[in-house]
């Protein structure tokens, strides 16, 4: 893509700085992660979860709740949710306090649409296996083969942006491919039944689909995309963050501890995730081999926020996001 150098963060340079970030995190006192701003108006936090990812493991393992209990905070888990967007709706609607740690793209879309949300922290995990897949024998073996075909994506989310990036990289006009907007629970059977020709999806859904539907990668984020344009994020309402900065910091710190445990105990973490996700041992073993690592970034990390702003601008330029958004206007003040 001709304008990648000016409109996107460099995966290589970003992950270099990310390595510094996790190193700094490992050596710091968690109370130093954010500026001290005392206060909370509740002793209960309502957290959303899904059938994969860090929040699932935090819920199932139980140590997360013990960490918060030391600060006199009780946890209520709400879910499961299929993807990030419904958790953002739950937070905006007042039935939950935090989104479940998902894509920044639907979060930015919700903010642009008027939701009073602010980011509380960000996460980068590697390796990333988000991919566009097609069933074996479909005749779709490369991005160019998607011309005239239908691809399931989640609107304004990771699936849609990956397809946009893949088409642009291979100089294919978006109008040549049919975007079918489906959430993951509907997209999986659509691919299986042939109602769509391909699916752009993240882990673990894409990994499960490869095995269950005998599918293969057309475009793999970690291999074929030279930059990262979407990150994992937690959000709450601006009012909740303003009223409860101490509680938000405590939740952030508990997630840091959980991410550190998962990064250091990936095998045990994958057994926990498999039990809840109910997928095969073969899929579980693939995840174990990845040994996924989590890196955290605070909302006052200027370099990270600058990278996210570049990502947002890239998405706006390609109409994945409908209008510009200034990321620094939507960060929790902790």
TrEMBL record:
Q: Where is the Solute-binding protein family 3/N-terminal domain?
A: 46-265
**Matching Gene3D superfamilies, A to Z?**
Periplasmic binding protein-like II
Note the InterPro entries from the entry: Solute-binding_3/MltF_N (IPR001638), SsuA/THI5 (IPR015168), TAT_signal (IPR006311)
Q: Which domain of life is it from?
A: Bacteria
Q: List the SUPFAM superfamilies.
A: Periplasmic binding protein-like II (SSF53850)
CDD domains, A to Z: PBP2_NrtA_SsuA_CpmA_like (cd01008)
* Record PROSITE patterns: TAT
SMART domains according to UniProt: PBPb (SM00062)
Family matches, as PANTHER family:
ALIPHATIC SULFONATES-BINDING PROTEIN-RELATED (PTHR30024:SF42)
Return the similarity comment. Belongs to the bacterial solute-binding protein SsuA/TauA family.
Q: What is this protein called?
A: Transporter substrate-binding domain-containing protein
């Amino acid at each position: 893509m001709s304008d990648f150098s000016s409109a996107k963060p460099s995966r290589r340079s970003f992950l270099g700085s990310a390595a510094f970030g996790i190193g700094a995190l490992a050596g710091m006192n968690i109370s130093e992660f954010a500026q001290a701003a005392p206060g909370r108006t509740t002793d209960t936090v309502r957290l959303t979860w899904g059938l994969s990812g860090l929040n699932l493991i935090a819920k199932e393992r139980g140590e997360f709740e013990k960490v918060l209990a030391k600060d006199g905070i009780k946890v209520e888990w709400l879910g499961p949710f299929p993807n990030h967007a419904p958790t953002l709706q739950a937070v905006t609607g007042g039935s939950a306090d935090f989104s479940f740690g998902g894509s920044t793209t639907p979060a930015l879309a919700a903010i642009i649409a008027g939701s009073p949300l602010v980011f509380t922290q960000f996460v980068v995990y590697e390796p990333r296996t988000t991919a566009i897949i097609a069933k074996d024998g479909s005749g779709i073996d490369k991005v160019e083969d998607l011309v005239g075909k239908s691809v399931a994506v989640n609107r304004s989310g990771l699936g849609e942006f990956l397809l946009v990036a893949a088409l642009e990289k291979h100089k294919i006009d978006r109008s040549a491919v049919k975007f079918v907007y489906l959430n993951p629970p509907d997209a999986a059977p659509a691919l299986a039944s042939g109602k769509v020709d391909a699916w752009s999806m993240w882990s673990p859904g894409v990994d499960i689909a490869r095995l269950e539907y005998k599918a293969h990668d057309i475009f793999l984020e970690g291999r074929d995309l030279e930059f990262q344009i979407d990150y994992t994020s937690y959000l709450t309402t601006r009012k909740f963050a303003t009223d409860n900065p101490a509680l938000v910091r405590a939740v952030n710190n508990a997630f840091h501890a959980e991410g550190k445990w998962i990064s250091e105990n990936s095998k045990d973490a994958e057994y926990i995730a498999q039990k809840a996700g109910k997928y095969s041992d073969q899929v579980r073993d693939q995840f174990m081999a990845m040994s996924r690592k989590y890196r955290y970034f605070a909302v006052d990390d200027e370099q990270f926020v600058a990278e996210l702003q570049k990502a947002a601008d890239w998405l706006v330029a390609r109409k994945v996001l409908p209008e510009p958004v200034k990321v620094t206007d939507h960060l929790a003040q902790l």
